[in-house]
Amino acid sequence: MSGETKETCFDEFVAAREQFEKLMGELRSDSARILEHGEVESLIAREGNELLRRLMQGYLDQRAAAEERCEVVTGADGAERRHCRARSRSLATVFGGVTVRRLGYSGARLKSVFPLDAALNLPPNQYSQGVRRKVGLEVAKGSFEEAVKAIQEGTGGEVPKRQAEELSRAISVDFDEFYASRPVEDARRPVEEASAPEEEAGPAAAICW
């Protein structure tokens, strides 16, 4: 690795390192030495969550930097796509909003495909799997208003009530479809031998050439 340093290898995480140093500096400051533990908790929760968001962003930037351009990409429809250009999309995570930069491939009258979206198993909307899971858990406990408040106070993300309702319905549909598609177990089969259900399949990956 001649000519490479830790900084050049992990350049995508510069912002995360800066945030970590900022948090450490605040904790070491004279003003922090007189704080009550609850105030320190709030400080770490606020600044620490921003650190996690920047780590998430750094990871996505790392994946984007490593993505290789293909001459031809064949989508799930079997059609070849030769036109490529860089695009980006928003992703709302439990740490906050991040941006996913990736290559999109298109053709005449063909819908664009994004191989990195498939590799990351990104959702069709902007809400991450972590946010979807949090919405499902909170809605199961109480009302949509309470779920929205719990997400806003307990994570770095934010989901409006209307979107929480839509996500809840989507999760319910996914749940019903999953169990409707499961094969009926042989009643004579011992429970301990039953295999765990397979994970839900993600987006179909495009084929690069």
The order of strands across the largest sheet is 2-1-6
- Structural class comes to alpha+beta
**Number of E-state strands:** 6
Q: Report mean pLDDT, rounded to a whole number.
A: 80
Strand content: 15-25%
Main sheet characteristics: 3 strands, antiparallel
Number of helices: 7
What overall form do the CA principal axes indicate?
flat
Measured as a percent range, the helix fraction is: 40-55%
H and E string = HHHEEEEEHHHHE
Number of domains: 2
Radius of gyration from the alpha-carbon trace, in angstroms: 22 Å
- Unreliable stretches (pLDDT < 50, length at least 5) are 4-8, 182-202
Straight-line distance between termini: 29 Å
